[in-house]
Amino acid sequence: MKEFIKSSANENNLSLTVKGILVALIPVLIFFGNSAGLDITENDLMQVINAITAVLSSVMMLYGVSRKIYYKVIKKFSD
Predict the structure, then answer these.
(1) Is 1 helix (H, G, I), strand (E, B) or coil?
(2) Angle, CA 13 vertex, CA 58 and CA 64 arms, to 5°
(3) CA–CA distance from 44 to each of 8, 30, 31 (Å)?
(4) In this predicted model, which residue has the larger pLDDT, 47 or 26?
(5) What is the DSSP letter of 73?
(6) d(Cα 50, Cα 23) in Å, to the nearest integer?
(7) CA distance 65 to 12
(8) Better-scored residue on pLDDT, 26 or 66
(9) For residue 48, is pLDDT > 60?
């Protein structure tokens, strides 16, 4: 699953496939939101999707940096 969400070009970024899936959901979410009486625009959903991808990318980057520090610094000195 990790390989699916990581970008091929930069493993710290979310893959374009995942971003594409999220963007493809916009019309569906607008339809259901409007059916439920919510006033949702495409711009609103794009902002939410951009925020989600930014948070996910940041979490993946922090995980990668933490793992690198652990294996390169902490584990090296504990051996």
Answers:
(1) coil
(2) 60
(3) 28, 10, 13
(4) 47
(5) I
(6) 10
(7) 10
(8) 66
(9) yes
Answer for the pair 14, 53: CB distance below 8 angstroms, yes or no: yes
Query: How many CA atoms does the CB half-sphere of 32 hold within 13 Å?
Result: 5
Is residue 67 exposed (0-12), middle (13-18) or buried (19+ Cβ within 10 Å)? exposed
Q: What is the mean pLDDT of residues 55-60?
A: 85
Q: Please state, as a whole number, how many other Cβ atoms lie within 10 Å of the Cβ of residue 16.
A: 12
CA distance 10 to 67: 17
Mean pLDDT, to the nearest integer, of 28-44? 85
Q: Which two tokens stand for residue 79?
A: 């051996």
Token duo for residue 16: 């374009």
CB count in 10 Å sphere of residue 14: 19
